[in-house]
What does this fold into?
Amino acid sequence: MLAAFIGFEVIRRVSPLLHTPLMSLTNALDAIAVVGAIILAGEHKTTLATILGTIAIVSATSNIVGGFIITDRMLKMFKSSGAKKA
Amino acid sequence: MSPAAVELIIEIAYIIAAALFILSLKWLSSPTTARRGVFAGEAGMLLAIVGTLLHHDIVDYKWIAIALVLGTVIGIPLGRVHMTAVPQRTALSHAFGALCVTLVGTAEFYLRAPDVPKFMMGVLSLEVILGSLTLTGSLMAAGKLQEVLPQRPITYKGQNFVNLSLLGIAIIIAVMLVLDPSKMYLYPLIVVIPLIFGVMMIIPIGGADMPTVISLLNSYAGLSAAAMGFVLDSKLLIVAGALDGASGFILSVNMSKAMNRSFTNVLFGAFGQEQTTAGGKEEARPVRSATAEESAAILAAANKVVIVPGYGMAVSQAQHKVRELYDALNKRGVDVKFGIHPVAGRMPGHMNVLLAEADIPYDRLLDMDEINGDFQQTDVALIIGANDVTNPAARSDSSSPIYGMPILDVDKARTVMVIKRGMSAGFAGIENPLYYLDKTLMLFGDAKGFVGNIVRELTGAGHA
It folds into this structure.
């Protein structure tokens, strides 16, 4: 609840300028679900859980890696006119 | 190390990671600190993963390692897609996130069933229902954006009834499972029905509604991850999921406001309802058109120009030509700004990313509220591939389907120039009275080609 509230306040202040990077970044953060998947795949309780966990790690990791790379690429492009003259 | 000590270390790693995530979003609020935000996010993620790997329940690292490597191999190309493909990439990554959550939820169910506490079963159902509908919904959205699937909204009678019943049935089954988790045979239904619902939900959605839909799917993906956090009792996951859910939620509220749709309308995916026969077929009304040469002359004589980009600019990849135009006009001392409607393009902030890619400084990109007061002092409003977001009928004609939608007041500028391929109506299927104003010049042609021609006139002919 607290997190949602803090998140709400923080995100409201993100300017529309950066909405696309915001979305790709939160997406990457969301992939923290990988921790649940890692435990599943590592516990070896049932074969089903291991298989599902492994696939889940693959999809989450691709989101983490891809999400961070593209967010950074996007942000690199945003330059102010001040910075350019300097 | 004793298991208790390891547990403590993991706990601390998670708390720091959660703090880093929040900082990461905080830094994202300004372009100057935004990249620091990405580093904070990466650091938090690394910490969380390393912490998890220490977990004592893990007995076998083989599959984890393979999966991490495979995920990285898939992730790198996904991070390197072309900027114009960002909307479909985002949709695709929502699908991946949702897949992960659904799979983990399913595995958890079969590990714990039949003795699942009521609260646990409740959040688990929520996780799986949201996860699976986001999975197929996002895949459909990505397909439409990539134009693998038809972009045109497909509607049929009773669509909302069918969709809501599907969702209703899934919820009823979930409730039955909460009351009696030993009915394990019911579980596949709360995966399969939302999977179908996800497809059905996106079918009636057309291109221009995509910004709202993507935000909404983003929010669902986040909420399902937060629900998973409750299932696994992981505060970190709850925090990250809630952040994602909140950001998607805020964006969808913004988007629906910008399109003047009620939020409930959006929540139920009831889009594309208004494209009945609103467009009058008055093609015969006179419009004034102009050549690149004439428009270059007008632009060169202007003091203040506002460029309004839309999806048409993205389609024809005109952003680099627009940048050349910006440079050419700047060189002549013309003040050029960009007016960006929140729903321009196919996802929130789409235009900003494309223009930033073309190296246009971000302080020249203004959103609707910032730019609207400027149009009265603007000599030329140049519209590139945008339509409905500039339609003055939204302000004046209460019978118009888009009446009440906030628009860019381009018609207040002294001259309006519209680059457009033809006279066809925009996404909403409505005539744009703007095109018939005396001060409006229609520049027929492909955005990239036409802007290129104007630039040539400005740079070449200008010096002679």
